[in-house]
Amino acid sequence: MKKIVIERKGSLKGEVTIPGDKSISHRAVIIGSLAKGKTRIKGLSKGEDNLRTINAFKLMGIKIKKTDNGELTVHGRGLHGLTEPENVINAGNSGTTMRLLTGLLSGQEFFSVINGDRYLRKRPMKRVISPLSKMGANIWGREDGKFAPLCINGTRLNPIEYESPIASAQVKSAILFAGLYVDGVTKVSEPWLSRDHTERMLKRFGATLERKGNSVSLCGGSELEPRDIEIPGDISSAAFFIVAALIVPDSEVLLRNVGANPSRNGVLEILRKMGGDIQILNEDEAGGEPVIDILVKSSCLKGVTIGGALIPKTIDEFPILSVAASVAKGETVIKDALELRVKETDRIKAMASELRKFGVDVEEFDDGMIISGNNHLEGCECQSFGDHRVAMSLIVAGLRASGRTVVKDTSCIDTSFPGFKDKLFSIVH
Ligand code: S3P
Q1: Which is it for strands 305-306 and 72-77: parallel, antiparallel or unpaired?
Q2: Catalytic site residue 234?
Q3: Which tens digit of pLDDT belongs to each residue from 155-196?
Q4: Range of 414's domain?
Q5: Which atom of ligand 1 approaches the CA of 27 most closely?
Q6: What is the CATH number of the domain that holds 298?
Q7: Cβ neighbours of residue 244 under 8 Å, at least 6 residues apart?
Q8: Ligand 1 contact via 96 beta carbon (within 6 Å)
Q9: Which domain-ending residue is among 230, 256, 280?
Q10: Using CA positions, which residue lies closest to atom 11 of ligand 1?
């Protein structure tokens, strides 16, 4: 149980390059493995979750090599080039690996088993198994398919039109990856748009795919062509630096190479609404995704209400947004966010309990919380519940808190952001 102590307090000044986006990195490895030929990937996330996806494809016969300049080359073998994994695929803590691969494995001509760590084995899998079963997939899991480990007996699948009850990119992507193996059109609709990295990348690799509003249709059966991909920085990782710079007085930080996909950039919209001084510089493009630099200066924040379509656009940023809300003037209301209860941990419960230790008044309800901002955070001893984003959020809170803060159970940070602590502390002066 690695703990991090935050004592040295000063303003944040300097420039930070944000490492590669976790979600896009998963998709680059998956789609590169399914294309026929060599896909070179620059800037892949080095997080453990992404290593899980790489190892899964190595286990299914795909050659994946690191080049001298740090790039990754994936030697894709075409849509039907995967081979039966002779061992259990270990998704570790990665929900994206497990859910996306469950879709993909459903349409293979072989048997596979996928498992995860003790946190992932508690997360709901019916959300992917239900639609995939409607396509004809054979999937078994604990408690009638609720939980991993999952066993998948690959088979021929049928097209479906699926209306997802939740806005989830993992559900949507699992169905789309299964849809690659279907003769005909697979259509997925969702109540609000979730991140669209799968759609963008499949299109880039030559898939026939069309989006209308919150629906996407994919025409299955045709081979994908390899492409070189540059992965933009992860806006979910950038969010910790943005909030740190906003809430620690006298700070000014320039963040380079941040992905700004409109289905992911809710955090910028919300923090600006809270009064954050956030300037967008150098708008560019990488790997079919918009990329920006962001200049952030300390600001007096005010409480806001967040709900509806903003929730999926911001889904991974609520732990750190709740830290920003803790020092904002007035109340911040987060609603329509039931999904936060089934992330790496229950993020509503976790942030409510840990922020209270800093002296913050938090009211928890089913699908959200009300945080009453307090200019003063009291240093304390708190814990991550094994959730990387909770751990990083509490470290940022510790930078603003008086006295000493100890965050326990921080090794989970490596699932998405190895080197986070050193990068953050390198700009504390
Ligand atoms: C992800 C989708 C989101 C997000 C997760 C990554 C993805 O999950 O929370 O961290 O890469 O598709 P849901 O699809 O469950 O909302």
Answers
A1: unpaired
A2: no
A3: 999 999 999 999 999 999 999 999 999 999 999 999 999 999
A4: 3-20+232-425
A5: 11
A6: 3.65.10.10
A7: 12, 251, 253, 396, 399, 400, 424
A8: yes
A9: 230
A10: 23
